[in-house]
């Protein structure tokens, strides 16, 4: 590695660009993707790879993967509560396992095992419920109790002499983590290598409509026509949908997280507590990645607060008392689009030729591959895939909601 760096530094190595130089916007595209995060890049990748549709523009107001993709905590799992949610996220988890080979890039995918702790009788019942739904649908999950938890994660404080003793947990062995940046880079590089255009620093300011159809987008770099448009803009979903002329049942709130200074690896499993609203995992660099629930009020700001950190650390030290002297390295916040039933909004909208990928709350990263693959199928074929139909926008009018609060109420 050192020799390779020296070779490039002295000018003897050949540098290959990971992405082509940004071009001027064309007058029109077959597909315009609003949002250059993981979901937008994945949609472009599968459009190009699986369907040969390359006259595609990804429009990102900031930089590639610089929104919620850069601000999440990288947990991947499929142990949800509803049959619709389990099937959806399990497909995504399966796709994640092969992404490094697909990209020829190491996304640092690492299976760790995922514990959802139960501190009350009600939480134990919910864990048993989730485990049975998961097993019925072929997902590896089971209800375990403290003696079994201790064998897998002996670092966890399982004493009964605490405020919230651990009574059991839903254990999901396939639970994993991956490098969020690499996922966005891999999808975007694969798409641009096949002819897709990535336009960074290009903010969409309006959606052009004609006779009830979306026909183009207005941007800070000019106006372009589009055959089809899909928005993948976590944190700004309601604002962009308003440009297109419809309203979303979404409340946008900050979601905060933090990491510690690097430590010698000691925690292999991912630990989540729905009752305490905390979760923790250890990255490949040794940092403890920690977070909790969304903020209780809606603010369009990526600011951090002392209140969040104090509340999080109180519960974290109950689970891992020996971390008392560990320093916090950095803290940040993302924007979470929360729906009433804690499930996403995907598919068609009231505006023809305009599609949506929104409402991800705290669970968007784990859905990146399946969203990209199924979005591409929908755009290419004009038919909404079966796996996306339960998440249609019209379900709120039809009272067919997909209630995932029991499996998604913590920021993870």
Brief summary of the model shown:
This protein is an alpha+beta fold. The protein contains twelve helices and 19 strands. A hairpin with a 5-residue loop joins strand 15 and strand 16 (288-294).
Keywords:
2 domains, 412 residues, alpha+beta, FAD/NAD(P)-binding domain, D-Amino Acid Oxidase, Chain A, domain 2, 30% helix, 8-stranded mixed beta sheet
Produce the secondary structure layout:
Layout: H1 2-9, E1 28-34, H2 38-51, E2 56-59, E3 75-76, H3 83-96, H4 99-103, E4 110-111, E5 114-118, H5 121-136, E6 142-144, H6 146-152, E7 168-172, E8 176-177, H7 180-193, E9 197-199, E10 204-210, E11 213-219, E12 222-231, H8 237-244, E13 251-260, E14 270-273, E15 278-282, E16 288-294, H9 306-319, E17 328-338, E18 345-348, E19 354-358, H10 368-381, H11 395-398, H12 405-408
Parallel strand pairs: 1-2, 1-12, 2-9, 5-14, 12-19
Antiparallel strand pairs: 3-8, 4-8, 5-7, 6-7, 10-11, 11-12, 13-16, 13-17, 14-15, 15-16, 18-19
CATH fold name of the largest domain: FAD/NAD(P)-binding domain
Assigned CATH class of the largest domain:
Alpha Beta
| Straight-line distance between termini | 35 Å
Query: Roughly what is the average pLDDT, rounded to an integer?
Result: 93
Structural class: alpha+beta
Described by the principal axes of the CA atoms, the overall outline is globular
CATH architectural name of the largest domain: 3-Layer(bba) Sandwich
- What is the count of helical runs? 12
Domain unit count: 2
**Helicity range of the residues?**
25-40%
Uncertain stretches:
none
């Amino acid at each position: 590695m050192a020799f390779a760096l020296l070779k490039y530094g002295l000018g003897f190595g050949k540098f290959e660009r990971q992405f082509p130089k940004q071009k001027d916007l064309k007058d029109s595209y077959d597909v315009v993707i609003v949002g250059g995060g993981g979901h937008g890049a994945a949609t472009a990748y599968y459009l190009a790879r699986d369907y040969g549709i390359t006259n595609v523009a990804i429009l990102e107001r900031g930089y590639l993967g610089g929104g919620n993709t850069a601000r999440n905590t990288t947990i991947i799992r499929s142990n949800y509560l509803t049959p619709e949610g389990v099937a959806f996220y399990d497909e995504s988890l399966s796709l994640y396992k092969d992404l490094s080979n697909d990209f020829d890039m190491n996304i640092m995918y690492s299976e760790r095992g995922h514990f959802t702790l139960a501190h009350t009788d009600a939480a134990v019942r919910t864990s048993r419920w989730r485990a049975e739904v998961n097993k019925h649908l072929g997902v590896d999950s089971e209800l375990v109790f403290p003696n079994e938890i201790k064998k897998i994660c002996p670092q966890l404080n399982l004493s009964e002499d605490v405020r919230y003793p651990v009574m059991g947990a839903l254990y999901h062995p396939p639970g994993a983590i991956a490098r969020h940046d690499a996922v966005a880079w891999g999808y975007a590089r694969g798409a641009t290598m096949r002819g897709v255009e990535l336009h960074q620093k290009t903010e969409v300011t309006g959606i052009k409509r004609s006779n009830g159809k979306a026909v183009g987008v207005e941007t800070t770099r000019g106006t372009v026509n589009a055959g089809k448009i899909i928005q993948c803009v976590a944190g700004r979903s309601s604002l962009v949908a308003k440009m297109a002329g419809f309203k979303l049942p979404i409340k946008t709130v900050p979601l905060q997280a933090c990491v510690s200074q690097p430590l010698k690896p000691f925690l292999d499993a991912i630990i989540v507590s729905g009752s305490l609203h905390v979760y923790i995992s250890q990255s490949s660099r040794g940092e403890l990645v920690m977070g909790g629930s969304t903020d209780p009020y809606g603010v369009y700001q990526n600011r951090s607060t002392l209140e969040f950190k104090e509340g999080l650390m109180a519960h974290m030290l109950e689970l891992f008392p020996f971390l008392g002297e560990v320093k916090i390295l950095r803290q940040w916040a993302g924007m979470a689009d929360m729906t009433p039933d804690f499930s996403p909004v995907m598919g068609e909208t009231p505006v023809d030729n305009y599609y949506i990928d929104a409402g991800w709350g705290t669970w968007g990263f784990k859905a990146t591959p399946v969203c990209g693959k199924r979005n591409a199928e929908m755009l290419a074929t004009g038919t909404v895939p079966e796996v996306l139909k339960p998440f249609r926008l019209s379900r709120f009018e039809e009272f067919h909601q997909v209630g995932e609060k029991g499996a998604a109420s913590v920021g993870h």
